[in-house]
Amino acid sequence: MGLGALKTQGGKAGLPARRAALAILADILGEARPFDDALMRAHTNDFEPRDRAFVTALVQTSLRRKGECEAVLDRFMSKRLPRKSGKTSLILLLSAAQLLYLGGPPHAVIDLAVTLAREDRESRHFSALINAVLRKLVGVEALDKPHLDVPQWLWRRWVKTYGKKTAHDIARAHLKMAPLDITPKTDVEGWALRLGGIALPTGSVRVAERQGVIEALAGFDEGAWWVQDAAAALPVKLLGDVTGKTVLDICAAPGGKTAQLAAAGGCVTAIDQSVARMGRVQENLDRLQLKAELCVTNALDFPLGPLFDAVLLDAPCSATGTIRRHPELPYIKSEIQIAELTDLQARLLAYAARFVKPGGSLVYCTCSLEPEEGEQQVESFLAGHADFARQTLSPDEVGGAAQFITEGGDLRTLPSMNIGLDQGLDGFYAARLRRQ
Ligand SMILES: C[S@@+](CC[C@H](N)C(=O)[O-])C[C@H]1O[C@@H](n2cnc3c(N)ncnc32)[C@H](O)[C@@H]1O
User: What's the domain of life for this entry (predicted)?
Assistant: First the structure.
């Protein structure tokens, strides 16, 4: 069904998009569903690309600015909504995000909000309140207090780990979508020029003006590059020159690091437990004309055989370093999940270590901002493995960026660290350990 049909069915222009946005927001905030799954469930594949982009912007802005929107809405609500108010709070949030941060004709925004409320049995009784509150919002200045957008449990953690100033900077970095970074197989400067981007000192290309779909960009079909955040491209570099070396890539899908290792001349064995995600690794490698041996298995069941010159473990984690791309994460993850993941990471790290040749390197990394999934994980591993030692990193290994290297000699990037075009990079942690 095209959007034209949806429009007729919905009656009002813009209503199907608002309906979809509301369903997606309810799925994320009510069911802890990831954004991409929720987007699919709302049948947005039937939408025109422009409308799909609008739905995405509406939902993502509501998530990025949730705390600020709610703080402004609170000013105009004399009492809290009762428990049985259906989707009223979500309709208010979506509409406030649009009025305060996205613009759009207030009359239409309010009218559609009231229509959405009337469509929901439990919100129907609140349509007059929605109308009244949103009218008061018109012309009100938006807040600029990004820390309000960080749920309390995460805010407390970041202040404790990084201090108030950096926690504020991280929160601000999360207000914007991440830029498009790519890793070219070769000729970084050339691809920067061709794609109208810049070559970052770390070896990635940051595309300045992203237009249209990624698949339509020059070099995609010929397999000249792949999409990979500048921070995600760093852990492989810590293994040094892998030409002709055997490398075990554990938790490999969707394969950004597998591609890097293969492109650098490593003899790569990549393992991941997800059949679907491994399918994407194979697709990517085919497009890039690169080779690696792929094995779908729980890493903890991978049989011990010949040892490897290098092992990379990109462990499953809370992914709080990627909130710029996934603004739903703070609302679908919890501290309990972090504790469960920490336990799995410890088991994976201890298991991965068994595959490293004496004299070989093990790089452990996660795209998390939480020290339990990074620094503390490596400390407790080293405390129990006398045959491994940390090999400290130097800024030259990461394009001269001294800000990425911790006092202890590990890699720690934050979304608030500016590296090009006034933008940051994903939050990543990595440590290099050497088997004696
Ligand atoms: C952070 S992602 C890896 C990203 C990947 N290294 C890259 O650069 O594209 C973590 C991966 O770990 C996989 N995974 C989680 N638990 C696993 C396990 N016990 N054994 C194997 N793979 C696992 C997930 O399927 C997921 O693909």
Answer: Bacteria
